[in-house]
Amino acid sequence: MDVQQTTRLLFIDDNLRDQGGHYFELATQLLDGANQLGYAGAIATHKSFATHAPQNWQHDLQTPFNVRRMLRWSLGVDGASTVERDFDGAVLTGDRSSLGQTARQYAAALRDRTRLKHHPKEMVRLWVEGMKDLFKNARPTIHDRLVLNTGDDFVMLALVQALRETSVPPLPIHVIFHFSLCDQPTPSRNVQRRWEAWGNQVNRCLQALVPHTVHLHATTPGLAQQIQRVGVDVSAISYPTRIHRSKSKLCKPNGSERMRVVLAGLPRAEKGRGQIRSFLESVASTGFADQRLLVSMQMPDKRWQRMVPASLHNDYQNAKQQPNDQPPSCPLEVMTNNLSTAAYHDWLDSADVGLFLYDPQRYANRCSGVLLEMMIRGVPVIVPNQCWLAEQVELAGGQGSIGWMYDQHSQIPDLLDRFLEEREAVVQRCAQHASLIAERHCGRNALLEMGITDRLHTQSLVA
To answer: Are 8 and 145 in contact (CB under 8 A)?
Structure first.
């Protein structure tokens, strides 16, 4: 990064290792938004990104990090920590308010010793070393701003430690939270204890970060409310996405009249991995038998047999060998593990309907980038009720507007039939709504909602 007199937005994401995926998409969206607002955008990533960045990469780049997935030691629902930690990652032992608390601290300290590769203190140390390298090369000035693209309570501990060990001027710092603190409507006592500890840990970090000015943001209103409930000040912003114009032959191949139902992304537990098998069984005797449906999904090379019924194993094997530039000859279409950015977006462009088998509790307050990518394309969707995904359908007009919401997975075949019956009207509404998504969920607007001003507009007013 060249030192510049202009104001820089220094984006930081140790998770960014290669092209593709939502870390890459978020980073490029924010960088583009920074440029549109008149800032010099720069990014600090994992070391491996140095060899995987696009050839036409135009943004300032540093690759100082040897560690990633700091979220591993969060007190939130996606982390393994059970107690508060000090700024160096060690178990915080000052609070001995109860025998139970002392026992939890002692047990956590013992567990830490068995995890040498991912020991919390070692992860903090490596992250801090990366930040020190970044500051040495970038030399932030009082004109710059730091933005942590993917924040959590544990990475904030490391941020405090990094700033303590370096000499940088007071900076505005923005931290973006994506992941839930809790996924239970009525938290158990242990979950509530972790939730409160999360708030205590973040507030300790905020106090320790003075004189830097820290702004916290959450990518859904529900997540912002969760964080506010434990006494942490945070604002809700719109998660950015964009439309990628496809030139691939995969899009609507000639000769294929079947409705292409796309289950995007590698299957994980919270994304309905355990529901794929029953869904395929539910449509095999109807939509597959009369050749009305084509189910397109991304699958790992191993353990796919658990997710595909035995009656469809031959179809699955045939789908694996099917050339992408030809109409599928069986009711399944299978994408490989590692899709390039272009191939991934070509695949989304091919969808007639996007199906989400997501766990509604895990996504009650969590944003889905894939859903936004479908909506910005004007693709109708079928989503679980009682979660953030359903809220997006409600905002667009409710049931039948740009898609449908289900309470039970057994309702999905009937909803696919409804889509076939109402397809023309639904697709038209989706196309109209897509323009609203493009305006609201872009990098430029996300930065504006974070309180980062439009320098180009300000300069034009002064001129």
So the answer is: yes
221: helix, strand or coil: helix
Enumerate residues 6+ apart whose C-beta is below 8 A from 215: 172, 173, 174, 175, 235, 450, 451
The helix (H) or strand (E) run that includes residue 280 is helix 276-283
State the number of CA atoms in the 13 A half-sphere of 139 facing the CB. 6
Q: Measuring CA to CA, which residue among 365, 439, 372, 430 is closest to residue 404?
A: 430
Say if strands 145-151 and 172-177 run parallel, antiparallel, or are unpaired.
Answer: parallel
- Alpha carbon distance 10, 5 (integer Å): 14
Q: Give first-to-last CA distance, the chain, whole Å.
A: 29
CB 137, CB 62: distance < 8 Å: yes
Percent of the chain as helix, strand, coil, to the nearest 5 = 45, 15, 40
The string of DSSP letters for 83-143 reads: S-B-TTSSBP----SSHHHHHHHHHHHHHHHT-STT-HHHHHHHHHHHHHHHHHHH---TT
Residue type, 200: N
Phi and psi at residue 183, to the nearest 5° = -120, 20
Q: Which helix (H) or strand (E) holds 446?
A: helix 443-449
Digit-coded pLDDT (tens) for 292-302: 889 999 988 88
Mean pLDDT of the chain: 88
- Return the structure tokens found at 142: 């009082």
Q: Does residue 461 register a pLDDT over 50?
A: yes
Q: What is the pLDDT of residues 192-243, one digit of tens each?
A: 899 999 999 999 999 999 999 999 999 999 999 999 999 999 999 999 998 8
Instruction: Please state, in angstroms and rounded to a whole number, the distance separating the CA atoms of residues 131 and 128.
Output: 5
pLDDT at 132: 97
CB < 8 Å & 24+ apart, contacts of 183-191: 183/77, 183/359, 183/361, 183/362, 183/364, 184/361, 185/361, 185/364
Does pLDDT of 324 surpass 90?
no
Residue 65, CA distances (Å) to 78, 122, 136, 387 in order? 21, 13, 14, 34
Do residues 232 and 199 touch, judged by C-beta distance below 8 A?
Answer: yes
CB of 27 within 8 A of CB of 149?
yes
Burial letters 315-343, b for 16+ CB under 10 A, else e: bbebbeeeebeeebebbbbbbeeebebeb
* pLDDT reading at 4 higher than 50: no
